[in-house]
Structures are given as C-alpha cells and as structure tokens.
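Hey,
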Amino acid sequence: MSKAATSVSAAAEQETVRYGDRASVAISVKVVGDRPGVDLTGAVRVTDGATVIADGVTDAAGRASLSFLDTADPGSTTYQVTFGGSGAVEGSKAEFVVRTSQTNVDIAIDAPTDVLPGKDATISAAVIGTPRSPTGTASLTVDGKPLAKTALADGKITAVVPAVAAGDHEIRVRYAGDARFQADEASATLSAKEPVANPNQGGAAAVQAGNPCPATASACVDLSSEQAWLQSGGRVTYGPVPITSGRDGHRTDDGMFSVYWRDRNHLSSIFGDAPMPNSVFFDGGIAFHAGSLSDQSHGCVHLSYDASEVFFDTLSVGDGVYVWGAAPY
C-alpha cells in the first residue's frame, strides 16, 4: 500500500511574543483523503530559513507543541514547519507567522558609597537586556543637571560628577530604547559625607596592629572582647566601640554576612513593637541597633545610641559584616 499524503499546519499559541521570551507553536498533521486510523507519529522541525530552531515528534493523532527562543526583531516573522513523515505517511511542509514585540530592560546604577565632599565621583549605569545587549542612547543626570547623553557602549554609560557637594544627590538614568527594547529610566542616590571623627583613636590603633577582620568587611564584631568597629579596605575608621550581643539560648552567630536592610525607626514585630533605633540588618532578624550595653540581647548587636547612628549612616546595603569569637557570658 502506498504512503498516505499529509498536510501539516502550525500556529503560534500566543498572539504576540516579547523579544527574548519563548514562543510556542501548535502543530497538527492530517491525512489527505480517506485513510482512517493512520498513525501520524513522526518528526517535526521548525526552521527560520536554513536555521533549525526547534525539533519534536507528533503523537499518533498528529499533534505536537514546540517552543523556541524568540530572537527575531519586533514585527512579523514567517517560519517553516516540516513534518518528516513515517513508513505509513508522506511528509509535508507549511508556514506560520509569529509576531514579536519589544521587551523591557533593567537599569543597574553603580555609584560610589565613600565619596568625600568636594571630590569627583564616577557613576556608571548598565542597561541590561537579553538575549542581545540593548543599543541606542542613554542619558545620565544628577539633581537634574545633564552629565552625559551618548550611545551605549556594551550596554553601559559612564559620567563623572565633579566636586560633589555634601549631602544626597539624585542620579537618574534614562534609556531611549531601540528596535528590540522599550525605553526605561531608573534612579539612585549619590551621597557625599564628611568622615566621622573617631573618638577612640587609641583603640583603633591597637586593633589595627593585629586586625583579624577581613579587609572585605565594612563592619567587624568581636564577640569575645565585646566590641565592634567600622573599617574601609581593612583600615579602622570608627571604633572600636562597646557592644552587647546574644544571651545564652540566643547567641549571635559568627561568620561573614551582608547588610540587606536598614530602618532608622524600626519597631520589632517579634518583641511587641519594641523600639530598635538605627537598625542595620545583616543576618535574618539580627541587626546592629541602639540598645542596652549592660543587658544581653536576643541575638542583635547592641550599640550606644551615638555609635548606632554612625553605623547606620555609614553602612549600606551589600556591605560586609564579619562576626567572630564567643561572648563571655
């Protein structure tokens, strides 16, 4: 018996697919003529010209669903689907159309956190998109003043802020978009602060002589000696200052952590809205904050109020916190 002729059809399962998302196509194979009960299992392939973008197999009823990464420029693109046939049926071909739309970007702004008033600051921003990098132009302003407007280079834009004034300044990056990516904008804060005078220069010198805290950490906590300090590049900049830490049953864990949240007027939801001024969280519910220097905590690191203000104003999200030793109580 001769092989049965077939017809294959395909249609995109979504009306529009964003650039860089996955497109799905429903494929159906049918026998031409009266040939009931024919097994329509066979290989199917989706191509864009000579490029193969998806392979699969139909079930016995001739159905398959394939997906592929949509890397076509926005607009309508015609693809080809090929059914390879089998011992019982002939192969067949067809075309289908996928409509692609623009997609969004992310904008990551990198601003220095240790700028001194009067000094220059270099700001860079990355416009992030996939699978290809965004092109087109972007602009960067600080406090509304234009500093750069240029074509992206590897998805990035850079500008220098000359002689930064003391205080906080708004950075705003605007991306104009391109054929594949939508326009977008983002903001961040550039802060310039005078260095805080260290009231414990003698203690800082003693700690510095054999500093056990990694240079990558911005805050250091020695549970054994009940003291903490701030540092930059391994150089002690503030402290050491006295602390209390977790009591028996609530010990403060040691290790390397990162600041992930700051709340100047935090109220503890765990302990009946107890005030935790100048909270800098670095390990779950554990934070630096103003607290008693005679009573041990439930795991947090207590600082005097003045020290807690310096820790809060100095530390930023992402800064390293290194804790070691064992409390003597």
